[in-house]
């Protein structure tokens, strides 16, 4: 009798495990949605706005004469996008998305920013001065390349309240020739979101 | 001389001398021969649009593609045939010659078309690898 009970309990446990593992998903508290879908939970600046802005600004920049008509790969240094709105917005996400799209086009490359330079210098010193690396394969000192252009951006917003709440966002990018300190390209993207008060 | 040229010459000559019956016959036969080409061309354009949701009132009226500065640039003209507003979402998919995607999916872009409104949407491929495209159109009504 005891054996029969054990067998039944074991079979029941196995069938329970089988039910739990019937597919690649389990649990019911949360679900995945398409990250490219349009987020409309609030009228604040959202990830879908960041994606739209980054896509459009990257292709606008690729079409600019400075990049489109350059025979060489254009080297750019990026400064962080300034968030001039009253919302907390992680502008590094916008910058990174634009950078990824530009660099994957094969027409642009990015020089290390001020924050990244120390890591680059440390790596060079490690390879050349520690005595740990084969000098034939070590990266050479004095070969870093400076950027020709600097990319600057800002995000601003304006809110109007009436029967509805309307927020207009403006994302602006400028490309500046570092040597001459003149702006050689600029464009912007506007978004307007309306919601109930 | 090809068939199209022959038809054109015949039609021009008819304007001066031919009978009404012959003129009607030639115009009708011209329309008969040309109609399949126009519908095939329209069908070919429509094959570039992948529709989901309710988009029956949104018609593709023109589609142009050109490689500009090494990047495929597409302009699609859509018209809302309804008298009511139509909220839609769209995005481009960029493909290589083998019809394989060369970039990650774009974000959906929202757009509201007024009743009867015609809009031009422009997409620029973010990479020179793109040689073909699909426009995804979603009716969010």
**CATH top level label of chain A:** Alpha Beta
Terminal Cα span of chain A: 70 Å
Distance linking N and C termini of chain B: 53 Å
Give the number of domains of chain A: 1
Question: Could you estimate the helical fraction of the residues of chain A in percent?
Answer: 25-40%
The CATH architecture term of chain A is 3-Layer(aba) Sandwich
Shape assignment of chain B: globular
Sequence stretches where pLDDT stays below 50 over 5 or more residues of chain A:
none
Largest sheet of chain A: 6 strands, mixed
Query: What are the segments of chain B in which pLDDT stays under 50 over at least 5 consecutive residues?
Result: 1-9, 35-40
The radius of gyration computed from the alpha-carbon positions of chain B, rounded to a whole number of angstroms, is 20 Å
Estimate percent helicity of chain B.
25-40%
Structure description:
- The complex is a heterodimer of chains A (197) and B (141).
- Chain A is built from five helices and six strands.
- Chain A is flat.
- Chain A is of the alpha/beta class and 197 residues long.
- In chain A, strand 5 (164-177) and strand 6 (182-196) form a beta hairpin.
- Chain B is of the alpha+beta class.
- In chain B, helix 1 (3-14) crosses helix 2.
- The relative contact order of chain B is 0.19.
- Chain A binds chain B through residues 36-38, 48, 51-52, 55, 58-59, 62-63, 68-69, 101, 104-107, and chain B through 68-71, 89, 91, 103, 105-110, 124-128.
Topology of this protein?
The complex is a heterodimer of chains A (197) and B (141).
Chain A: H1 2-20, H2 47-62, H3 65-68, E1 74-78, E2 82-83, H4 91-104, E3 108-110, H5 114-129, E4 149-161, E5 164-177, E6 182-196
Parallel strand pairs in A: 1-3, 1-4, 2-4
Antiparallel strand pairs in A: 4-5, 5-6
Chain B: H1 3-14, H2 20-46, E1 49-53, E2 58-68, E3 71-80, E4 86-95, E5 109-113, E6 118-124, E7 132-139
Helix pairs in contact in B: 1-2
